[in-house]
Every structure is written in structure tokens, then in C-alpha cells.
What we know:
Growth Hormone, Chain: A; mainly alpha; globular; 15 helices; about 450 residues; about 0% strand; disordered N terminus
Amino acid sequence: MYLAGMEPQRLPFGKLILYGFGIFGWSLSLNIVSTLLSYMYLPPAEENTDLVSLVPQTTYLYVFNIIALVMASGRLIDAMADPIIANLSDRLRHPLGRRIPLMRLAPAFVAVFCTLMFTPPVKGESMENVRWLALVQIGYYVFFAMYVIPYNALLAELGHYPNGKMHLSTAQSVGFMAGVFAASTITKAATLFPDALGDLRQLQYAVGVYNAAGAVCMWLPAFLIDERKYCRPANASEPLLQSLRTALRVRNFRIFAFADAVFFMSIALISSGLLYYITAMLGMSREDGYLYMGIMLFTTLLMYYPVNVLEKKYSKKMLIIFAFGALSVVFFGICFLGRIPLPPWSQAALLMVSFGLFDSFLGILPNTVVADIAHAEAHRSGQNKEGMFFGMRALFQKLGQTMGVMLFMMLTLYGKDPGNDTGLRMSGAAGGVLCALAAAVYVLYREKEDEV
């Protein structure tokens, strides 16, 4: 399976931390887009902000608004690029390795394109803003994939020692959740810029600063982890279409990818709606959103040790199904926000604690499942295609996220403002149904097939 060469070293703890910084950087960027983009281009009606709609509120086929179609088209183009980038990374022959060269190239472009997505040319409702967003987001997502796919593939390659995959996946999950929290502080950070700039300009400056910081974090593992030292030399020579067919022929991978895509569809729904839930349903300030994301992050971090312990006692399959089912109940709870006889702050805190408890399982375990599938397939075929498996996972994730964003924007047509929030409540119910579906699909997964 492996090319001849020296046995790779175990990744030191300090390098493990650096690996976590990489996902913090791209999680920060991704979650700024997820939570803020639709809010900025199509804000809810509020009296305490000067944000205005930046795109026409045109509806197509009675359910699709223009912002949903634009965002979906960008993600679909991005998804189509994922297998190409994955195959390029798997087959790359470079003195620095298969993954690091792309990881060094991408961060600057990710930061620039993300910032440009938030700087439309017209400060008001305009089709020019639609065309701008449609073009710029393609560049963003392509370079984003150019970093994330090789980065994730490294998990399978660096984690060659006992419990290595769990350690790396835990570092990933901590970094990702830290990025979620940091992204949630952006509306608060925007207020540090002079009020005279106005809400829109304040947010744009904050986006630029956050993206610069994210790029630096993404570069840390790319420049400070030596792939040649900590990974086994690997062989992958299959062309793109053959590699795609090989990955999709793996039954377990198809089941995992479908369940994962459905779950990420639900996550996209809830991420897109977070600021709306806080402002329109609970009547709180958007600047307070980071407090509740902090509660979720703290809860998730507390759960990482129990998850690592439980993974040694129970099967990953059982724990993943449990987490899907529990999150289904949590998402249905969104339907009742603002109507529960509790203070708004306690409702928001309860939602975030509940989400953090169960999302911690899905922050760690799925990446190790993909690594197990890739490792088992490498033993069967002699081809190391970790990049393709993680790239195909990314493709299915993005398809799910695209449909989730589209569904959320469709549901806003039924109400997204204080006193008229039916669409927001429907999004919670939709998220609950999707998580229940993911649990039902994952029952079909055959865990023993990936034991090597």
C-alpha cells in the first residue's frame, strides 16, 4: 500500500494544536458567510439599524427568492470543483508533499474573496449587487475547497498511530467550534468601529479584519507541519473519473455521505437563521449573539472528553445515530422560541446548551469515519485516495448546505420579522425532520466493513 520510506513520526502535541488552528481559520471564514451574509443582504425589519435590503426581493416560482438562487449557484459550482481538487491533491508530486502546497496557496485568496462578498458595489437594492455576489462567491468557494480538502485528508495520514484519528478529529472539532464562536462575535466587534461609518460599513471593516486573522491561522499548519516527516509516503495514480467511481462504489461511504448531507442541510438552516432567531423571535440585540455561541462552545468543549471515552466503549455508529436523534428534538424546540414562559435570554441559553451537548458527537466522530473508510479502501485497492473521500464528503456536504440555505431563504417568505415569524418557526421544524431522516439512513451503515 505504501511507498518505501522511513516510518513517519507521531505528531507532537504542539503540532496537534497547530493543526487545530488551521480549521479555526477556515471555520471563522465559513461561519461569517453562513451567519452574516443573508442577514446583511436581506436584513429583517428593525428600528435600531440602518441596514437595508441590498438585493431585489424578487420571487421565482413563488418560493425562490433571488438571494437563495445566487448563494445556491455558488455552492453548486464549488461542489463540482471538490472532486477535481481532491484528485489533484491525491496525485500531486511535490517536494513538500501532496497536501501542504495547496494549503499554502489558498488562504490569501479565501480572505480576499470572503471580504469582497461583503462589499457590494451599490449601497442599496440593486441587481448589480446580485451579479457581484454571484461572481465573487465562486472564487471564494473554489479557493476555500483548495485548502479544506487537503487539510481534511491530512487527518487520515497524520493519524497513523493508535487513537491518532480521534486526537486529530478532536483538535479539528475544538478549532471549528472556536471559529463558530469567533464568527458570532463579529457584530459586536463591528461596534468598535466609529458609529459615523454606519452599520453596513462597520460590518464590512470587521469582516476584513476577521478574514485577515483567519488567513494567518490557516497558514500556521501549512508552514509549520512537515508533511514528509509525519505522513507515510503514499501512492495514488488513478485519474479523476476512475477515482470518483471507486469512492462511490463503497457502500458505506454512500450511506455516510447521504446522511451527512442531510445533517448539513439542517445545520445550514439553523446557521442561516441564528441572527433571525435572536432578533425577530426573542427580541434581543444581534450584538448579544456571541454570548450564546460562547455558551454552546463551552458546552461542546466540556463534552469532548466524554465523547472520547464513550467512543472506546460504544460503536461510532450507535453514538452518531443517538446524536442525530437528539438534535432532531432540539431543532423542533426552535418552533417554540419566544412562546415559552421563560425570559428570552434563558430560552436562547437552553437552546445553545442542548445543541452543544449533542453536536459534540458529530464534531468528532464523522471525520474519523471517513478516515476509516479511506484507510480500509487503501488496504483493498493499494491506492491512497484520502483526498478523494474527503473531497466527495465535502461535495455532499455542500449540496446539503446549498439546499439548506435555499430552504431557509424560501421559508423567510412566510415571515422573518418580529410578529411575523412563521417562516423562522418552520425552519426549526424542517431541521428536526432532516436530523431524524439522517438517523434513519445511518442505521444502514455496516461498521465492521471498515475494520482493518
